[in-house]
Design goal:
By secondary structure, the protein is mainly beta. The chain contains 3 helices and 34 strands. The strands form 9 sheets. The chain has a 4-stranded antiparallel β-sheet with strand order 2-34-33-32, with no helix packed on it. The chain has a 4-stranded antiparallel β-sheet with strand order 3-4-5-6, with no helix packed on it. It has a 4-stranded antiparallel β-sheet with strand order 7-8-9-10, with no helix packed on it. It starts with 6 loop residues before the first helix and ends with a strand.
Length: 382
């Protein structure tokens, strides 16, 4: 196991997606990555999108940040440990706090409790914008905490899962599954589905009892293959796509698939090289592959419905599904809205010129996008 490795080795066992991509590229004899595909001119304008407001909360640096949503409140955090709650329809700041340390993971919130994890491996929980408690963690965390059912759930980079009482900070249980020693420093899968805690552990999607941590079911989405640890790395990456009891997720650079999370039944899985999460609208699942092809799959069986190559090598974010549209951001700060039925571009929006990070999120009827420079931009499709 990774915990048995001496410190100099352990330090290189946790690989970010960017570092891993560089390693894979260095091992390849192929040409360098092509230049980003130029954007079409003029910009598509078949869908009217209103710019509502924008805020600057502070730099996200390399933090793969995605804000937490509760009701009409958006909670975001910056790399330096600032946590900000905003009213999604107006951008009004509700509260702001600092945990006093740089963060390694994003933010989780149920509206009452808000949780973040620092680079010093400390879980910090806030209530009403004030620090309520702190707990030291044994492993690094890059997946945002999940706050639900008066509990704070943590998925650590060593694939262990931990539960804490949200009010007191008391540790309730821990669960560790065996796995390969090489781990991916990229947000994984952690979400509630009815009374089940669904988590990605390596290439498997698992359903846990949130009260005890026991495993109810587990389903492999990928079968890792390769001659070394890098090639066999197939951790599930977030965000997943959920519609009712169906959860769809991507296994890093190997496959994507959908699982009935109520019974732990695999619906389908297919090979696909990619490193970002998925989105879905109940009928289609959307994903971006390693070359920034955006594809729509039929949720029921994985059939490819359409593929767009308009944004290849533009550094696309994970997608967001809207009624009638799918949304992705790119590394130059553009936000692209495409038709959900055929992938034809409908609108193009500008932010601050820095990369869109995480995935766009929907809060009520407001679409919110975060950028690397710390910009928060809110839009509404008409």
């Amino acid at each position: 196991m990774n915990k048995l490795l001496p410190p100099p080795v352990r330090a290189v066992r946790l690989l970010s997606a960017a570092v891993l991509a560089a390693l894979l590229a260095a091992c390849s004899s192929g040409p360098q990555k092509p230049k980003p595909t130029p954007l079409e001119s003029p910009a598509p304008a078949s869908l009217r999108v209103q710019s509502l407001w924008n805020q600057r909360i502070g730099s996200l640096q390399q933090l793969p940040m995605r804000p937490a949503i509760h009701g009409d409140t958006l909670v975001a955090a910056t790399a330096d440990g600032t946590v900000v709650a905003l009213q999604a329809d107006s951008g009004k700041e509700l509260w702001r706090a600092s945990v006093g340390s740089e963060l390694s993971a994003g933010v989780g919130s149920d509206g009452r409790f808000t949780a973040v994890v620092t680079r010093a491996n400390q879980l910090v929980v806030l209530q009403g914008g004030q620090v309520a408690w702190r707990q030291a963690l044994k492993s690094r965390v890059v997946t945002p905490p999940l706050v639900a059912g008066e509990r704070v759930f943590i998925y650590a980079a060593d694939r262990s899962v931990h539960a804490y009482d949200a009010a007191s900070g008391a540790k309730l249980w821990s669960q560790q599954r065996p796995g390969d020693p090489l781990m991916l420093a990229q947000p994984g899968v952690l979400l509630p589905v009815r009374d089940t805690l669904v988590v990605g552990q390596g290439p498997r999607l698992a359903g846990l009892d949130p009260l005890r941590g026991s495993v109810r079911w587990e389903v492999p989405l990928a079968a890792p293959r390769g001659t070394n640890e890098v090639e066999r790395l197939a951790d599930l990456v977030g965000p997943p796509a959920r519609n009712g009891d169906v959860v769809c997720a991507r296994a890093f650079q190997s496959a994507l698939g959908c699982v009935d999370a109520q019974g732990g039944v695999l619906q389908w899985s297919k090979n696909s090289a990619g490193a970002t999460g998925l989105a879905g609208d109940g009928e289609r699942v959307y994903g971006v592959d390693a070359t920034d092809r955006l594809s729509a799959y039929r949720q029921s069986n994985g059939e490819v419905l359409w593929t767009s190559e308009r944004f290849r090598f533009r550094g696309l974010s994970a997608p967001l599904a809207l009624p009638g549209s799918v949304v992705v951001g790119d590394a130059e700060g553009y936000v692209h809205l495409l038709s959900a039925t055929d992938g034809v571009p409908r609108a193009r929006l500008q932010t601050d010129g820095s990369a869109v990070v995480g995935a766009p999120v929907l809060v009520g009827s407001t679409m919110v996008v975060l950028t690397r420079a710390g910009g928060v931009f809110a839009f509404r499709a008409q």
